[in-house]
Amino acid sequence: MNKTIVTLAEGRTDVVMVSKTNSDNASIMVKQSTMSANDQGFIQEEVRVGFVKGATETLKKLNLKAGDNFSEKAFPIKLVVVEQFEPFFEGQEPKKNPKTDEIITSSGAPVYRYTYAVSESSPMVDSKLPTDKVGVTQVQEAKKEIESFK
């Protein structure tokens, strides 16, 4: 069973975060540490952050606090990462390299990432795009240089 830790979001006093647009709905932030291999076969540890969503009253009944293992205190869940070329929601920024702040691309297009919190028994699995070896800034600079030769 994965350790999926309930986390208090920055600036919050309660782990149950009530929606600003509909007080009947809320979410709980969870983190999960996992190991995987990237598309070059390099093993990496990754901390995933996701949100368990539901009715505000239902989430409050779980009586969770920061540091609790959601999978032990409530029910087993896993965090599943899905990447695609289109934003998952309005205003979403593309995925960035945390060390260089470069936008992550696949075949030259920006990559958008979403993490789903699903039941551990769900058949849903990670769906990640292969990443380009060079950053988008380098690609844009190379295109400008090529254009200057025309």
Describe this entry's structure for a reader:
The chain is α+β, with helices and mostly antiparallel strands. It has one domain. It is 16% helix and 35% strand. The chain has three helices and eight strands, in the order ββββααββββα. The protein has helices at residues 56-61, 70-73, 136-149; strands at residues 4-6, 16-18, 25-37, 43-55, 77-84, 105-106, 109-110, 112-119. Strands 1, 2, 3 and 4 form a four-stranded antiparallel sheet that branches. It starts with a strand and ends with a helix. The model has no long low-confidence stretch (mean pLDDT 89).
What's a quick, concise take on this entry?
With 150 residues, the chain is an alpha+beta fold.
List the helices and strands and how they pair.
Blueprint: E1 4-6, E2 16-18, E3 25-37, E4 43-55, H1 56-61, H2 70-73, E5 77-84, E6 105-106, E7 109-110, E8 112-119, H3 136-149
Antiparallel strand pairs: 1-3, 2-3, 3-4, 5-8, 6-7
- State mean pLDDT (0 to 100 scale): 89
Task: Based on Cα principal axes, name the global outline.
Answer: globular
What's the number of helices? 3
Main pleated-sheet profile: 4 strands, antiparallel
Low-confidence stretches: none
Domains, number? 1
Helix content: 10-25%
Distance between the termini: 58 Å
Measured by DSSP, the beta-strand proportion falls in: 25-35%
Number of DSSP strand runs: 8
Any idea what the radius of gyration is? 19 Å
Order of helices and strands: EEEEHHEEEEH
Structural class determined from secondary elements: alpha+beta
